[in-house]
Amino acid sequence: MKTNAAFGLATFALLFAFTQIAIAQGPKHSLRDDIRGLYSPSPESRARASARLVEAGPAAIPSLKSIVCGAYKSDSDVAWREAAKAVGQLKAEDASLCLVRLLARDPTLNVFASEETIIAYDPAYAALLQIGEPAIPSISMALLSLHPDQAFLGLRILQKIGTPEAKAAVEAYIEALENQTKLAKGILSDFPRENQGRK
Fold first, then answer.
1. Of 56, 57, 124, 198, which cross-links 99 as Cys (Cβ 3.0–4.6 Å)?
2. What angle do CA 105, 109, 115 make, to 5 degrees?
C-alpha cells in the first residue's frame, strides 16, 4: 500500500510539474497561426507573431517570402513589413530580389536621410543589410530596372556591405548607365535638325 501511495504521489507531482511548465510556456502557436498574426491590426500582435516565426527558423522562410513577394496585394500592406523584418533576421537570401523591389516603397521617405532613419522606416532596406553579401546578385540584377530612389538605396546597401563583390556591382551599374547614355545620344543625334523638320 505504501508503495502504491508513494507511486501515486510521484505521478501526481510529475503531472503537476508538467502542467506548470505548459502554463508558463503559454499556448502553442502553429506557423499558420503566426503567419495569420502578421495581418493583425495590432502592432504588438504582429511583432509577437514575427518573433515566433524567427524562432521557428528556416521552416518559416517560404511563408515569409510569399508575403514579402506579394506585398503589393491589398491585404499585405501591413503584413509585409513584419515579414521583411523576419526574413532579414533569418538572413533569407531567397527573398532578396523581392526586398530590392520594395525599397523606398514609402514615397515620403527621404533616401538621403541618415542610415538610422532609413533602417527605421524602410524594412526592406534593413532586411537587405542583414542578409548582406548573399543579397548582392539580386541588387545588381535589379538596379537598372529600379526607380532612381530605389536604385540609390540599393547602391547605399552595396556600399555598406563593402566587399569587392559589392564594389564590382556598383562599377558594373555605372558602366551599364554609361552605355545606355551613349546609345541614347546616338539616337538623339539621328533626330532631324530643327530647321529641316520632317519630310
1. 124
2. 105
Does the CA dihedral 84-87-93-95 come out positive or negative?
A: negative
Cell matching residue 125: 532596406
Tens-place pLDDT, residues 144-192: 999 999 999 999 999 999 999 999 999 999 999 999 999 999 999 989 8
Between CA 93 and CA 101 the distance in angstroms is 14
Q: What angle do the packed helices 148-161 and 123-131 form, to 10 degrees?
A: 30
* Cα(102)–Cα(139) distance, integer angstroms: 11
Q: Where are the domains of the chain?
A: 28-90, 96-187
Instruction: Work out the end-to-end distance of the chain between its first and last CA atoms, rounded to an integer number of angstroms.
Output: 116
Q: Is the pLDDT of residue 27 over 90?
A: no
Q: Who contacts 172 (Cβ-Cβ below 8 Å, separation ≥6)? A: 140
Question: The pTM is what?
Answer: 0.81
**What is the predicted pLDDT for the residue at 192?**
87
How far apart CA 50 and CA 47 sit, in angstroms, is 5
Is the separation of the CB atoms in 38 and 70 below 8 Å? no
Under 8 Å between Cβ of 87 and 97: no
